[in-house]
Design goal:
By secondary structure, this protein is of the alpha/beta class. The protein has 18 helices and 22 strands. The strands form 4 sheets. Strands 1, 2, 3, 4, 5, 6, 19, 20, 21 and 22 form a 10-stranded mixed β-sheet that branches. Mean pLDDT is about 95; it is low at about 1-5. Helix 3 (about 110-115) crosses helix 5. The longest helix has 16 residues, at about 170-185.
Length: about 550
């Protein structure tokens, strides 16, 4: 409940709530007073006056959630309200993950980058920037409802210098990549990301990534985030490579969306965790993030053999449309995905298709689509990429719940959605069926894994969503409910909070999130978006 006052001691007073402060400390009853976008008082504030009072009786007051792994780099230009995220209580998205950042842009311009990246960075608006500063300026000019904390992507660096093929960069190209990485970090990027099962990042050697890590290592707090090389049978080696890059490159490591996706290795999360523990024992600051679902989501192109993806989307489509090369692609594809993982066409569900002709297939598995079309599933897979000019995405059920829980409870684990800030009423809304993590990740943790099927305490879960990612980013004034901290806050009902988004109907806001404030301004009240756009692009070291 909100009431309006006349005498102003605070701009906003959150009264009567249970504060879980983001540090992992025990919950306690306290009021929270805000002024000038900051928390200025935490404690028993009886008799205090405010222009606006939020009654948080029976509710939890926590720092705004920081999504350590997101892909909201350009969708906020289309959907500046970021509804799918702020309705979860997310106040900051870490963007530029998996090697895909919309900067720096080289001489080939933004269209070359978007052609190489395909659907990974999709927006309706043209890009008229070349670097982080220009990208940030566009968001500030338009206004956004949440904060963004950018990383610079390895793929963007390769594209910028022209190293898009299946080869190592030349010495001059690598030097230019190092310069651009350092320049981006100087402009405020929080670190470097890679996508080592995604082209062109998959063409890189470990030594190439170490060289880039050393370029950002002199900047305090800069870290390395990696979508690792999860090739068939390589899930442990992927963590080992990540640790090696951190140790030899001299940077902290954030291992992205940790999971076992090779069915032949299910049931052994301890093998990956052991590598993390050994690296931590050696002094490496390594953490990882998890999303609480048993399915991934990605573009269908990712499963095409790497050699066929070289040069970007159009080059790949040209190969698929040439009969002789198409036959080669089919033979390579039949061997499995990610260098030898067996196909399971029932597990791959179509989630986004661009054309009216194929749109009825959304929500169908590739096996079902193949049956409808009277084709072999392998041909349906390749035909859809061709017919849709690569504008097709899937949700892939390739994880197990016990493995996910084992990762989630580890002391090095944070929560990251691998999702994107969109609006159900915007260009990324229905009939598209994105992964429900876009709408439900954080409430799902608090409802399912804290309250209903508890594996985490409330304090631990919130720490993994707030204080831990803030520390990784070096954000000393966020991720805590404390005097002097930025007033990014969420008020929720611990008895009712839960995700509602499903794989079949993903565009649904969660229950139980009652108020969300970004930089002291209400973005969600009584469960409704206010239309306010107080967010900003945060910078490393600022």
């Amino acid at each position: 409940m909100v009431r309006e006052g006349t005498a102003i001691e605070f701009e906003t007073l959150i009264q009567g709530g249970t504060v879980v402060d983001g540090t992992g400390a025990a919950r306690h009853r306290a009021d929270v007073g805000l002024r000038g976008g900051r928390i200025v008082a935490v404690g028993r504030l009886e008799g205090a006056t405010a222009a606006r009072v939020i009654d948080a009786t029976g509710r939890v007051v926590a720092p705004g959630f920081i999504d350590i792994h997101s892909h909201s780099d350009v969708t906020l230009l289309d959907d500046p309200g970021g509804e799918s995220k702020v309705h979860q209580g997310v106040t900051t998205d870490v963007s530029g993950n998996c090697s895909y950042s919309p900067f720096p842009i080289g001489p080939g311009g933004f269209r070359e980058m978007r052609d190489i990246f395909g659907p990974e960075l999709t927006s309706e608006r043209d890009w008229d920037w070349t670097d982080l500063d220009g990208w940030a300026a566009r968001h500030h000019e338009r206004g956004i409802s949440m904060n963004l904390a950018p990383l610079v992507g390895h793929a963007a660096l390769r594209v910028a210098v022209g190293a898009t093929g299946d080869r190592a960069p030349t010495a001059d190209e690598l030097s230019a990549m190092q310069h651009l990485a350092a320049e981006s970090v100087e402009q405020g990027a929080f670190g470097l990301s890679t996508g080592l099962t995604l082209t062109p990042g998959s063409y890189s050697t470990t030594e190439e990534i170490i060289a880039l890590a050393t370029a950002i290592a002199p900047y305090p707090g800069a870290f390395y985030a990696t979508h690792a090389r999860l090739w068939a049978g390589q899930h442990v080696a992927a963590v080992e490579e990540s640790a090696r890059i951190g140790i030899e490159g001299g940077v902290p490591v954030e291992y992205s969306h940790i999971a076992i996706i090779d069915k032949r290795a299910y049931g052994h999360p301890e093998d990956m965790i052991a590598v993390v523990d050994r690296a931590r024992d050696r002094g490496l600051d390594i953490t990882f993030d998890v999303y609480p679902y048993i399915a991934a989501g990605t573009g269908l192109m990712q499963f095409v053999p790497e050699w066929a993806q070289a040069g970007g989307v159009q080059a790949m489509l040209d190969r698929l449309r040439d009969p002789a090369t198409r036959a080669r692609v089919r033979i390579s594809t039949a061997e499995g995905w990610f260098r030898g993982m067996p196909w399971d066409w029932e597990s791959m569900v179509l989630s986004d298709i661009g054309t009216d002709a194929n749109r009825p297939l959304i929500g169908r598995s590739i096996a079902e689509a193949a049956s409808i079309r009277g084709e072999d599933p392998l041909d349906t897979f390749l035909n859809l990429i061709d017919e849709e000019s690569n504008g097709v995405a899937v949700v892939v059920f390739n994880r197990r719940e016990p493995d996910m829980r084992a990762f989630l409870v580890h002391e090095a684990a944070m929560v990251g959605s691998d999702g994107t800030a969109i609006s159900p009423a915007g260009v990324h809304g229905p009939p598209k069926q994105p992964h429900p993590r876009y709408y439900g990740t954080f409430p799902r943790i608090l409802g399912r894994y804290v309250r209903d099927e508890p594996v985490l305490t409330l304090e631990s879960a919130i720490h993994k969503m707030t204080g831990m990612p803030a520390r990784r980013l070096g954000l000393t004034d966020r991720g805590r409910v404390a005097e002097g901290a930025a007033a990014d806050l969420v008020v929720f009902d611990p008895a009712t909070i839960i995700d509602r988004a499903t794989f079949e109907s993903p565009h649904q806001y969660p229950a139980g999130i009652e108020a969300v404030l970004v930089n002291g301004e209400a973005v969600v009240t009584a469960g409704n978006h206010t239309g306010a756009r107080p967010g900003r692009v945060l910078r490393r070291g600022a």
